[in-house]
Amino acid sequence: MGVCTKLTNEKDFPVARIAVMTSPAKGHLYPVVDTLLELQSRGHEIFLRTIPNEVERMNALGFHASPHEDRSDNKELHDWDAPSGFAALQLVFDQLAERIPYDCDEFELFIAETKPDFLLCDVTVFGAQLAAETSGLPWAVWSPTFLPYPSNVAPPYGVGMGIPRTRAEKAKAAVLRRAIPLLWDTQLKKRVNAVREEHGVDPLEHVLDILDIPPLIISYTAEPFEYSHPDWPNHIVEVGPGLWSPEPGEGIVDPTEGITDPIVLVTLSTEFQNDTALAQSALDALDGTGMHVVVTTGAIEPKLLRPNSNCTIVRLGDHAKILDHAALLIGHGGMGVTQKALMRSVPMVIVPFGRDQHEVAQRVLASGAGQAIPGRDVTPEKLYEKIVAALTVSHGLDAILEGCEAAGGAPRAATLIEERF
C-alpha cells in the first residue's frame, strides 16, 4: 500500500485508491456522494462499503461499492419514543456501541481487500475510525450533521437546547456542558476503550476525545446555519451542505406538474419515527388556504393520511425538484431536505421527533430560517401559527445561502482530502 507517486491528476495531487465506510443510514451516505464524485472526476478510485440497498446505485455512479455485512445491530432506532432528551441520547449511544467491534473488523478486512492509499470514515462509525487510526494510512472523517464537539461558546449539543439568553438558561447551558460529555463517558467509555485495548492503542480519557484523533473532519454544514465555534480546533472544517440525491426511481412522478397554486412541501422521515401527526396537522392546517400541499410520507403508508381538498400525497418524491417550486417547507428536520431548502432560500417550519432533528430545529430558529414546534406538541392550530410566522419573518435566509456557498462544497472537501495524501 502507499500513494502512487507516478500518476498525478491535473491539480498535481497523486492519484489514489480511497476506501470509504458509511454508517447504515442513507442520510449519512448521500451528503458525501458529491465529494466522492468530485474525487473520482480528479482520477481517484473510490471503494465504498455501504448500505446494501444502495450498492447498485453507487456502482452506477462509477464507484466500487459493496454491502455492509448483514448484522442484527442494523436495526431501527426508537429514540423518537424516548421520554426525554437524555433517554434518547442513551438509545443512540447503545446503537453506536453495539456496532464498534463489528465495524472495526469489517473495515480492517475491507482495507486488506482494497489496498487503498487513503481512508474516509463516517463520524458515527467509531469502529471504522479505530481501524483507520491503526492502519498507518492517511485518513479523514466526514460528518453529515452537527458535531458534538464540546464548546464553551455555542449551546451544548445533544438535547436540542437553543441559544441561552436569560440568566437561568445560561446556568442550564453551563450544567449541560459538563453533564453531556459525562453521559457520553458513562454510556460509551468502557465499551470504546475495551475495543481500543484489544487493538493495542491508548484508551480515551473521555469518549469525545475521539473527535481529536482524525487528521481531518469534514463537516457538511456551515455558518451561519451552524452555530459559530471559535474555540474549535483547525482540523474541523465546514464545507457547506452535501446536496447529492438519487434520481427518482421508475414510477416516481413529479408531484408539482400542472400545479399553479403556491406549493408547500411536507416531509416525513424515511426512517420510521411515528411522525404521521406532522403530515396530518399540515394537511388540516392548510386546508382551504389556496396552498397546494405535497406530502412525501417516507416510512409511513400514504393511506394512513386523510387528504385535504388541495394536496398530493406520495411515498417518495424528488425533494430538490419540489423545492425548486416551493413557497414553504414543513419538515421533520432531516439535514438533507433542510439544507436543500436553505440552498434555495425556502423558509421552513421544522417539527422534530428524534435523532439530530431537535438540533436542526434550534438552528433554524437561531439563524432566522423559519420556525419550529416539537413533534409531541404539533396540532393544526399551533402549526398554522408557525406557518404564518415563517412566511412573514425568515430574515436569515440570504445570509445562510451566502455562508453555505462560500464554504466551498464538494470541490473544497475533495481538495482538503487530497492535501492529506
3D architecture notes:
The protein is α/β, with parallel strands linked by helices and 421 residues long. It has two domains: 17-244 and 407-419, Rossmann fold (3-Layer(aba) Sandwich), CATH 3.40.50.2000; 263-404, 3-Layer(aba) Sandwich (Rossmann fold). Helices cover 38% and strands 14% of the residues. The protein has twelve helices and 13 strands. It has helices at 26-41, 55-60, 85-114, 126-133, 167-198, 276-285, 319-323, 335-342, 357-367, 380-392, 397-406, 409-419; strands at 17-21, 45-50, 64-67, 118-122, 139-143, 217-219, 236-238, 263-267, 292-296, 311-314, 326-331, 348-350, 370-372. The strands form two sheets. A seven-stranded parallel beta sheet has the order 3-2-1-4-5-6-7, sandwiched between helices. It is globular. The relative contact order is 0.13. The model is unreliable at 1-6 (pLDDT under 50).
Question: What would the keywords be for this entry?
Answer:
421 residues, alpha/beta, Rossmann fold, six-stranded parallel sheet, 13 strands, 38% helix, globular
List the helices and strands and how they pair.
Blueprint lengths: L16 E5 L4 H16 L3 E6 L4 H6 L3 E4 L17 H30 L3 E5 L3 H8 L5 E5 L23 H32 L18 E3 L16 E3 L24 E5 L8 H10 L6 E5 L14 E4 L4 H5 L2 E6 L3 H8 L5 E3 L6 H11 L2 E3 L7 H13 L4 H10 L2 H11 L2
Parallel strand pairs: 1-2, 1-4, 2-3, 4-5, 5-6, 6-7, 8-9, 8-11, 9-10, 11-12, 12-13
Helix pairs in contact: 1-12, 3-4, 3-5, 6-10
Secondary structure: number of strands: 13
Report the radius of gyration as a whole number of Å: 21 Å
Assembly form of the protein = single chain
* SS-derived structural category: alpha/beta
Distance separating the two termini: 13 Å
Any idea what the shape is? globular
Mean pLDDT: 92
| Number of DSSP helical runs | 12
Number of domains: 2
CATH superfamily of the largest domain: Glycogen Phosphorylase B
Compressed to H and E, one letter per element, the order equals EHEHEHEHEHEEEHEEHEHEHEHHH
How much helicity do the residues have?
A: 25-40%
CATH T-level fold name of the largest domain: Rossmann fold
GO molecular function: hexosyltransferase activity; UDP-glycosyltransferase activity
Keywords: Transferase
Pfam families: EryCIII-like_C
Domain Erythromycin biosynthesis protein CIII-like C-terminal: 319-387
